[in-house]
Amino acid sequence: MKALVLGLVAAALASATCAEARPNARSRTDAAQVLTPLEKSATDCFAETVMANPGAMNYARAGQWYKAAGVIGFLCRPEVDAMTAAHDRLFGPGSGARYFKSAYAKHLDRALAERLQPFLERKAVASAEPPADRGVPGETEAH
C-alpha cells in the first residue's frame, strides 16, 4: 500500500514538473511579447549589416542567407545575446541557444530573403550620358 501511495505521489510530482516546463497558452503569449521585439532587433541588425558587407552580399545573392549572416554575425552579438538570454529565462537554461540555431535560423533565412531580395535584383537604368566610346551626335573632331 505504501508503494502505491509513494508511486502516486511521485507521478503527481513528475506531471507537475513537466507542466511547469511546458508553457501554457498564457505564458506563450507573454513569451511572444518578450521575444518578438528582441527577434526583430536581431533580424534588423543582420539585414543592415549584410547589406553593408560585400562578402555577405555575395552569399545573399547566391541565396545562402545563413552564411551571409554568419559573415557578420559577431556584429549582431548583443542583439542575439539579449534574445537567447530572454529565451533562457522563459524556457530554461540552454533553450535560447537551441532556439537560435533552429527555429530562429529558419526565420532569419526567410526574413533576410524577404528584406534583401529587392536590393539584389538587377534593374535596368536609363542614362542620359552617351556611351563612353561614342561622342555626341553632330559633333566632329577637329584635327
Automatic annotation (TrEMBL):
Keyword field: Signal
Residues making up the signal peptide according to the UniProt record: 1-21
UniProt region (Disordered), positions on chain: 123-143
Protein name in the entry: Lipoprotein
